[in-house]
C-alpha cells in the first residue's frame, strides 16, 4: 500500500472513530456500557494513530538513509571530478610551460637566424668588394 492511500485510509478511520466516539458521548444515554464502549473506541483510535506514526517514522527514516547514501555517492562523484579537474589543470600548466619554453627557443632561434643572415649578407658584401 503506498503512502498516499495509507494516509487517506488512516484519516478516514480517524474520522469514523471520532464520529463514533462523539455519538457515544453526546447522543447515547450515559450508561456504564456506553462509557466503556466510548473508551474502547477512543483507545482503538489512539492505537491506530500510534501504529500509523510508527510506520510513517520508519518510512521516513528509510528515506533519510537512502538520501544519505545518495548524498555520499554524490560526494564521491564530486571528489572524482575535482581530482580529474586538478589533473587537467596540471596538464594545462605543463603544456603552458612547454609552450613558453618553445616560444623562447623560437625567439632565440629567430634572432640567431637574423644574426646569421646579417653576417652572411656582410660576408657577401665583403666578397663583392674583393
The mean pLDDT is: 89
Please write the string of helix (H) and strand (E) elements.
HH
Q: How many angstroms separate the termini?
A: 110 Å
Q: How many distinct helices? A: 2
Major sheet size, sense and barrel closure: none
Oligomer status: single chain
Radius of gyration: 44 Å
Low-confidence stretches: none
Overall 3D geometry? rod-shaped
Number of strands: 0
Beta-strand residue percentage: under 5%
Number of domains: 1
Structural class: mainly alpha
Approximate helicity band: over 70%
Describe the structure in brief.
95% of the residues lie in helices and 0% in strands. By secondary structure, it is an all-alpha fold.
Structural summary, described in words:
By secondary structure, the chain is mostly helical. It has one domain. The chain is 95% helix and 0% strand. It has two helices and no strands. The chain has helices at 3-27, 32-129. The N and C termini lie far apart (110 Å). The model has no long low-confidence stretch (mean pLDDT 89).
